[in-house]
Amino acid sequence: MSKPPARIRLADAAFALFDERGYEQTTVDDIADRAGVGRTTFFRHYRSKEAVIFPDHDRLLELIRDRLATSSHSTALVAVSDAVRLVLLHYVDEGELARRRYALTSKVSALRDREIASVARYQRLFREFIADWMGDPTESASLRAEIMAAAVVAAHNHVLRRWLRGESPDPVREVDEAMSEVLALFPAPSGHEDGGAGGTTVVAFRTGQDLDALLPSLRRLVEGGTGAGH
Amino acid sequence: MSKPPARIRLADAAFALFDERGYEQTTVDDIADRAGVGRTTFFRHYRSKEAVIFPDHDRLLELIRDRLATSSHSTALVAVSDAVRLVLLHYVDEGELARRRYALTSKVSALRDREIASVARYQRLFREFIADWMGDPTESASLRAEIMAAAVVAAHNHVLRRWLRGESPDPVREVDEAMSEVLALFPAPSGHEDGGAGGTTVVAFRTGQDLDALLPSLRRLVEGGTGAGH
DNA sequence: CCGGGCCACGGTATTCAGTACCATACGCGG
DNA sequence: CCGCGTATGGTACTGAATACCGTGGCCCGG
């Protein structure tokens, strides 16, 4: 009844107006007016007109960074898969909101460009992480890290966009399969190979994640025979 | 003695001022003033303040499109390599100008974002081309096309940035090697395999390019045994 | 009940990018 | 000399983004 906080009202008003009149045809004043706040308040909550569409990219970056940080050499690829799944789940959780955003970014090139720039920041995180993981400071390893990061992000985006278009009933399964396919492209680095052929490697570790969220990775590691080997 | 055309004077003035005061600290008026023209003239030659740094991305896009268009199914991967080399050569030909631009994009996030958006457009071209080439309309092929395009572009960017930083004495060789590495990651699609084992496939075609520019691709096709096979 | 600090908010003014419109000068063929 | 196209300059306007200031609520110790 009363009112949700200004931040929410502003976002609601923005999406509504963008739907009605289009992005360029909507001024920040319009948004502030409909939200019942002053123009100043808008910019207090969102750095720019575009930012109202992409509220929490920074938080998402932190999420990825954290997930990657909690990994050892042998669990690096699992961490990558997990981080990718994390991002996907974030959007899936947004539900209809993510789809409205997608509709906007599909039409307005300024927004599409901004989205792409954000994705590039994810990619950078992955690139740096993978390069560290490889250890090898040679130019060839650096190139491979870059390619691998690009492939990882491309796979994620592909599945995400499919879900956004309503073409994917089970995006989590799809992204796990896609990641499996991507990681299979790249042979494992120097790493100490565990034992010989056959058998199962058990890795014990502690994480803040739900077991459910981890299961797909575990299953893939055990069944797929991939994740490290070729 | 007289004066170079306004377009050039504007670009010179812009780069000079960006070096002196920085990008944000330079207004379009400043640039126009130093170039000795009116503010209107600036916007007649460049759509925006950022565009003065990236004059010919559209032309570059056309270049890629054209090169990809002049290819058959069996020469598709050569076309991709060529197109990538084309882009790299474009920047290398710019020489110091490209390096000044790189210095700017490294410091100013707005410019970096725009650069990234441009690269995404190249990537899209490659993605569509590769998807067409694969023919296969299944979701799995579509994913692979996306990953492949991302890998191709990542390889290019990697080499380009190395050259921009002065770390690559022979970027063309490097990019050819990088492309070779990338394409080797992906098994060939359905395509009709030519003959059996051994032998050499000769493909005759006509192109507007210098033979020198094509040689590396040819050599790779003959020697590497890759470009299609695994 | 009362100051005092904190904080969210609103309003005003300013800068600057980008667009629209109009006026002018130059070159060139009729 | 006239007509025409083109490059240019100037002026004015919209709108995003920033800076600054004032104000009203709200909590808290007195």
From TrEMBL, chains A, B:
DNA-binding region: 27-46
PANTHER family linked to this entry: HTH-TYPE TRANSCRIPTIONAL REGULATOR BETI, HTH-TYPE TRANSCRIPTIONAL REGULATOR RUTR
Classification of source organism: Bacteria, Bacillati, Actinomycetota, Actinomycetes, Kitasatosporales
Domain HTH tetR-type positions: 4-64
A Pfam family of this chain: TetR_N
Organism whose genome encodes this protein: Streptomyces spiralis
Protein name: TetR family transcriptional regulator
Highest taxon above the source species: Bacteria
Keyword Membrane on entry: no
Keywords: DNA-binding, Transcription, Transcription regulation
InterPro entries from the UniProt entry: Homeodomain-like_sf, HTH-type_TetR-like_transc_reg, HTH_TetR, MftR_C
A molecular function GO annotation: DNA-binding transcription factor activity
